[in-house]
Amino acid sequence: MNKTRSRIVRFLLRNGPSSCGTIGTNLHASPSNVRRHLHLLRDAGLVQHSSAQFSASPEHVLLHAGALAASFHVSVMPSQYPAPMNQEQTSPLGRHQRRRTT
């Protein structure tokens, strides 16, 4: 997660519902920058928006963080890893090659 978005979520969890201006003042960021990040967080389901305030609940954050971690593991971490680079590799022609390591 982006550092600024992480700081915003932590701020909301510690301080409760807050406006863009309040969050920006406390995090030393412009309200427009905070608003942009809050809308991304809202779209991701990590924060909620009502009236002029945004809020976050530990339950929502844990739920969405867990789902994000699971999707990351499935889509990025293959179930079978290729051989480490310092082991012999077979070329398409069938000859063994040793990859260089630095």
Plain-language structure description:
By secondary structure, this protein is mainly alpha-helical. The protein has a domain at 3-66: Winged helix-like DNA-binding domain superfamily/Winged helix DNA-binding domain (Arc Repressor Mutant, subunit A, Orthogonal Bundle), CATH 1.10.10. It is 52% helix and 12% strand. It has four helices and four strands, in the order H-H-H-E-E-H-E-E. The protein has helices at 3-15, 20-27, 31-43, 58-76; strands at 48-50, 53-55, 88-90, 96-98. Strands 1-2 form a two-stranded antiparallel ribbon. Strands 3-4 form a two-stranded antiparallel sheet. A hairpin with a 5-residue loop joins strand 3 and strand 4. The longest helix has 19 residues, at 58-76. It is globular. The model is unreliable at 89-97 (pLDDT under 50).
Brief write-up:
With about 100 residues, the chain is mainly alpha-helical.
Key features of this structure:
single chain, 102 residues, mainly alpha, Arc Repressor Mutant, subunit A, two-stranded antiparallel ribbon, two-stranded antiparallel sheet, 4 helices
What are the SSEs and their pairings?
Elements: H1 3-15, H2 20-27, H3 31-43, E1 48-50, E2 53-55, H4 58-76, E3 88-90, E4 96-98
Antiparallel strand pairs: 1-2, 3-4
- The mean pLDDT is 78
CATH architecture of the domain at 3-66: Orthogonal Bundle
Biggest sheet, in brief?
2 strands, antiparallel
Oligomeric state of the chains? single chain
Shape: globular
Low-confidence sequence ranges:
89-97
Radius of gyration, taken over Cα atoms and rounded to an integer in Å: 22 Å
The CATH topology assignment of the domain at 3-66 is Arc Repressor Mutant, subunit A
Distance between the termini: 31 Å
Which homologous superfamily in CATH is the superfamily of the domain at 3-66? Winged helix-like DNA-binding domain superfamily/Winged helix DNA-binding domain
